[in-house]
Amino acid sequence: MSYLPYAVAAWICLVGIAGIATSKNLIHLAVCLSVTQSASYVLLLAVGYVKHGKAPIFVGLKLGSKAVDPVVQALTLTDVVVSLAVIGLILALALDAHRLAGTVDPDRLHEAQG
Amino acid sequence: MTWIPPLLVAIPLLAAAVIAGLDHITPAPIQHAIVLAASTATTVLAFLLLWSAESHEVVHWFGGWKPRHGLALGVDFAVGPLAAGMCCVIALVVTLALVYSLTYLHQAARLADALLLVALGAMCGFAMSGDLFNLFVWLELMGVSAYALTGFLVERLGPVQGAINFAITASVGSYLFAIGVALLYARTGTLNLAQIGQTLSHGRSGGLAIVAMTLLFCGFLVKGAVVPFHLWAADAYAVAPAPVCAVLGGVMTDIGLIGVARLYWTTFVAIDPGHAVGSVLLWLGCVTALLGGVMAFLQRHLKRMLAFSVVSHIGVMLAGIGLLGTSGLAGAELMFLAHALLTAGLFFVAGVLHADHGTIDELRLRGCGRGSWVPAAAWLAGTIGLVGLPYVGIYLGHALIDERAPGWAVAVLWLGSALSGAALLRAGARIFLGWGDPDDPLLGKPFDENPHQHGVVRPLLVAVAVATVAAGVVISVVPGLGQRAEYAATRFESRRGYAERILYGRPLPSPSPLLIATRHTSLSSLLFGAGSAVFAAGLAAAGLRKRKEIPAPVRVLHALHSGVVGDYVTWVIVGTTVTGAAWALLLR
Amino acid sequence: MTRRTRVVVLAPALVGLGALFAWAIAGLPAFGDYRGPYGYVLNRIVVPLRHTTNVVMGTNFDVRGVDTMGEEFILYAAVVGVTLLLREETKGRRVERRTQRLRSDTVRLGGVLMVAAGFLVGIWLMAFGYITPGGGFQGGVVAAGAILCIFLVGSHRDYRPFRNEHAFDPLEAVGTGGYVVVGLTALVSGSAFLTNLFGYGTTGTLRSSGSIAVLNWAAAIAVTFAVLLLFAEFLETYDRPLAPEDT
Question: Do β-strands B58-61 and B76-79 pair in parallel, antiparallel, or remain unpaired?
Fold first, then answer.
């Protein structure tokens, strides 16, 4: 039980990558990319957890009492914004691909080869 | 001079915010002026920083959060001469690309300039950063601006597809990197590179550190277009506009390798007592050099050819880094300098050809360049610089790598540069001299071109191209550059010294004065360089003649570079798993 | 590769990667057994030093403020990138559309309440970001999302003020560039970039934390307008002629 969160993070990553590699739709692919990245969120937050620790917000919580690691939470916040940026770009590209090729299937976009 | 490092990031980023925010308000000349002022200022400051970093490590702790009792709390920029040198080249190439794009890009030019400035700030930040997560942030910022810039010419499917392949492949690499960051943080409890190195040097290596190292390195290798993570590179460079290609192919790809070197020498050297990590990197480098060279020879699209030439030189540089020694790293550094300028220059010349004739296909351009003597000279000079004729262009860097490399590696690396050089020479002969057959099935099928750029000021484009190539060509003979590169590499490679300077503020021992003379290289390197130039010329001449049939291995290679992003991601995972298994076996 | 070949190549690679992950996880400390010094040290010193009770935001905007600056520019670059990539999409579609009105009053009432409540929550998250859980980013996203609900429950015309890119571009630039300017003022005054030089005030009140509060608002403004701009860009591609009965 004490390694379950880490195993979940690893599973999410692998499933997400499997989804990306076999996707038939760019929108689905963008969501799979987001899923893959959430593996890193889960792992970061799991790594920073302190047993019986409260959130590191010291309003009503005495200074010095057990609190979880604030650094990984800050890192996760930054990660989420990165994900937002990349997904936004990929969705815009998917719209362009649909306009130009009539399809959002990455396997059927045939320009670049060799 | 610790006030300079943040400025190298803050000035371009602030300028980008200003011009994108004022997009509808201020007229174009003011925006151009702001862009050029910001990037020129960054270049000047970078050179100032280089001069200052020679004598001491320039360390800037953001927010004033200096280390307490040897525990690093804040984020730092730690700049030695190697990092400062990188910033100089980056700023120089981006400035040249911005000048070029003044006349080359017309529609939405301001947004493109803003993104190029953002990329400049991010690359400088990446080169200087001494914190693991901070490296990730700059990596992502470079990536996001690059994906958007690749898809700049949205009227055709090619750019869109190139951008999609680039964005998804590079993002998968980055997310693996993020997982690696989490793992390393769990192992060491800190994000500062110097501190991580200290912590790792006290314990056993263990699976956690090795897997974290695999994920972190592979994230950088995806960005650095190393085989088998390189498949996105040709697709992306083929379709981006020429100044963007110059920045992407000239500096942004190379900087992934510097990230690998930095991570290794500040942290993972502690778990690698037998220097086994480098052998995998050396192998990867050699394979990349060869494959890049072969693929370059099989292209008719000039920018794809240049992309594969970039890949082959990346291979040589990675091999230099993988040798885990001073001359290897110094060689990689010097190659970066020459290669960045020469590749950017060649992309600029390709842009001129496209503006003149509306096509970038070597076969369609056959003979079109007759009479354009200046671009022809620039192309020839750039190509010879990339082949490595003694004392031209990349020669000195390559020779320094040879000093440490085993014999077979030396041969393979020279072969790789020769192959890509042969491709470029063949293209030059066909375009500017009109030699060769008008068609060749070996080079693949015709492709859909990017839209023609109109209204360019040709003399400016040619001037920028010539200046860039000229700067790149002379790198090998600049007196004292070789010795300084070696000194920079020595500083870079001392993990314990770095940790003491960063965490405890111990000053640097004063260096012995460095020679100001062109560095001497061994006879075998001279022979290899000359031989490789002759070989490239011969291969180019042979390549001008049409092949009757395409050999099967060539068909397999073309099929592997399929343009389908699912395949690319598959190869990234295969590459990560294989290198991870190799390091697991070597380091356990 | 065909899809079949791809799966055949990928499956063993994923299994191998999973094995590497398992090996790494075996070396991790057990869940809840956080050992590293970084988090413990920050939990102890940030509150007394900076008078901010939300240590996560203190880390984000002060201790690791330069990461957040990079992150803001990632969002900024994404907005500029989306504008760049969708500029062809919108050609020829700039026609005034008939609006489609929601038929159900209940839905419209519920939507209005959501917009109001969401916006207030967003502003509260932004304002008290450095005291209680929240922050500029979170508040910005919530507020922008609440505003998007206006589009869902109202008409195109109701939402049009929030698609005003000409006004929002400079405002977003103010937020993003403002962050850098705050950092530069510290640099110019002789300290390190992004040093917290403003007065720290009283812990637990709105007037505390020095530059953390300023950067928090800069981030909030930047994120709100960035997300609204993203919505505006994507909505521009969405304009579609409606059937005549939907007047």
Answer: antiparallel
Residue C242 falls within a domain, yes or no?
no
Contacting B residues, span 395-434, partner chain C, CB-CB under 8 Å = none
Name the strand (E) or helix (H) holding B277: helix B277-297
Q: Which ipTM value was assigned to this complex? A: 0.95
What CA–CA distance (Å, rounded) separates B406 from C1?
A: 36
Q: What residues of A are in contact with residue C40 (Cβ under 8 Å)?
A: 69
Report the predicted TM-score, pTM, of the whole model to 2 decimal places.
0.95
Interatomic CA distance for residues B353 and B359, integer angstroms: 7
C95 part of a folded domain: no
**Helix/strand number for chain C, H first, E second:** 9, 0
SS3 B68: strand
Domain range enclosing C111: 53-90+101-236
> What are the pLDDT tens digits along chain C (247 aa)?
778 889 999 999 999 999 999 999 998 988 888 887 888 889 888 888 888 889 999 999 999 999 999 999 999 999 999 999 988 766 655 555 555 666 788 888 998 999 999 999 999 999 998 888 888 999 999 999 999 998 888 777 788 888 888 889 899 999 999 999 999 999 988 888 888 888 888 777 887 788 899 999 999 999 999 999 999 988 888 765 554 444 4
In a domain, C25, yes or no: no
3-state SS record for B493-559: CCHHHHHHHHHHCCCCCCCCCCCCCCCCCCHHHHHHHHHHHHHHHHHHHHHHCCCCCCCHHHHHHHH
B21 and C172 Cβ atoms separated by less than 8 Å: yes
Domains and CATH numbers, chain A: 4-108 (1.10.287.3510)
Q: Do C172 and B21 touch (CB under 8 A)?
A: yes
Q: Which of residues 127-186 of C touch A (CB under 8 A)?
A: 131-133, 135, 137-138
Q: Is residue C126 included in any domain, yes or no?
A: yes
Tell me how far the alpha carbon of residue C54 is from its chain's centroid.
Answer: 18
The distance of Cα B94 from the centroid of its chain, to the nearest Å, equals 13
A107 contacts in chain B (CB < 8 Å): 564, 566
Domain ranges of chain B: 275-444+452-477+515-546
Q: Copy the structure tokens of residue B193.
A: 């590179």
Interface of B with C in 116-145 (CB under 8 A): 118, 121-122, 125, 133-134, 137-138, 140-141, 144-145
Distances (CA, A) of B348 to B352, B440, B473, C240: 6, 26, 15, 42
For residue B69, is it left (φ>0), alpha (ψ between -120 and 50) or beta? left
Q: How far is CA B69 from CA B72, B502, B505, in A?
A: 8, 12, 11
Task: Please state the separation of Cα C153 from the chain's center in Å.
Answer: 23
- Total number of domains constituting chain C: 1
CA distance B127 to B119: 12
Mutate to test the interface with A, among B65, B160, B561, B576 (most CBs of A within 10 A): B160
